Model the fold of this input.
Amino acid sequence: MKHLLVDISAHGFGHLAQTAAVLNALDTRNIRLTIRSLAPERILRERIRHPFQLIPYLQDNGVIMHDALRVDAEASMDWYVHFHAGYEQRKQQAVAELEALQPDLLFADVPYLSLDAAGACAVPSLALCSLNWADIFQHYCGHFPGAAEIHAQILHAYAQAKWFLQATPSMPMDDLSNTRSVAPIALTGKRQPDWLRGKTGCGDKVKFVLVALGGIGIEYPLEQWPQLENVCWIFPDQALTLQRDDFFPQSLFGLDYVDLLSSCDLVLTKTGYGTQTEAVINQVPALCVRRDGWPEQPFLFDWHQQHGEVSFIDWQRIQSGDFADDIAAALKTSWTKPAVLPDGARQTAAIIVSCL
Done:
């Protein structure tokens, strides 16, 4: 059997969403999977349908966040300075770990240390993402002293991959010469609105809004949350610190996330590849909270507007609770755009097989 080693960044779940779709498109009868990540095991096994060995592993930190919408540039730079002060030693340790695992191919979304190590010990590698940490680091931290050397090391690491596969929609990656575009990567869910009604006892007139704003530092203003006639809200379980007849936890439904998303009438989300692309693929209208300053945002927004039904809102409006009209308008949206084929997972799976 071929051994595929998969490294997944735990900076948000967008990296896992992309990777899971690719792995699920693989025929793994002759492939042994090892996954290294700090993403929660429950979510990894919920999203990835093949058996795999899990190794908890930190090899990137992306950027450090004040909360789900704001990057802490100074804290991020401090982390990178510390990480890269011992970078050569970290790289040699990563080489030793690769040699112990003996993979036939490394597939990364999108940590860079192991890609650098793979280049040093002749392990073939592929990278996949709609962003890269070199560009994100440069955007937020490039003005700090010492940033140029760190940026160069990250770029060198990404250059070790045979291809850096850019999932559509992607931010430009002009500093990389090994990029290759693939189609959008997203999971297709099974639409089950009657299941939602059965679990909640709601009638046919009720609309369901999935609240999917991410889990990093979000404080939901539930005390100010609007109440709308014939609208029910589905929240992450940990967000429900207030009980209300129109509030329901995700766990009530026992559905995979993408099935739950596709069964809802609207998703309230924030700038981010995973839910934005899955909303388009599953033809679910979206109300998207702007994440101003995030370098992916212009490209995600343009693509979402072109291919989906989306409107945008500021986080301050959500915090105030004054967004009932936005929700009501979004729930009246009729889907008019042609279906988008999420063929990037199949394309990437084929590239993986060719490299194995």
Summary: DSSP finds 14 helices and 13 strands in the chain. The mean pLDDT is 95. The radius of gyration is 21 Å.
